[in-house]
Amino acid sequence: MRMRVRRLGFLSEAEAAQLRAAPWTYDAVGASGSGVVPAGYHALSRGHVLGQGRQVFERACRDLLEWQVQLRSGLGVRADGPVREGAVAVVRIGVGPAAVNAPVRVVRIVEQSDRVAFAYGTLPGHPESGEEEFAVAIDPAGDVTVRIEAFSRPALWWSRLAAPGARLVQVAVTGRYLRALA
Prior knowledge:
It contains five helices and eight strands; from the N terminus they run E-H-E-H-H-E-E-E-E-E-E-H-H. By secondary structure, it is of the alpha+beta class.
């Protein structure tokens, strides 16, 4: 089954400025990289082997920083440009009137010779409150992996009501994230 290719959309300068000025919807900003899950949050951690070699690693890193994990997963993304610290985006989950807009801002970016990662946190209007980190790494043997680490909890009244189903959706979307760079 072929997935429809989505392209990165761009936020207007006014939308981007509003998101850059918006407060975080959680206190533990930056915690996704620490391995410690803040109290009261649900943790998610999954990984997948992408392949072998420096070429696979470099391609996956480039795609990671161009929002391809989200786009290839079937989500819509409107951003103020490629992934960088402080970048803002609205990730759109679903289609038509049932779609949900999820505003985020990039908390941090890591660019090392053997690991590239970024984390984004939730902003007002996002159905969840928390943070998600996307990382690509290459080990000394040349194995390339992608890893998703997240902590979240419902932020809006309707997402609290739908929490059990939302967890299932999060797990399904994370699986699509992991396959997006393959």
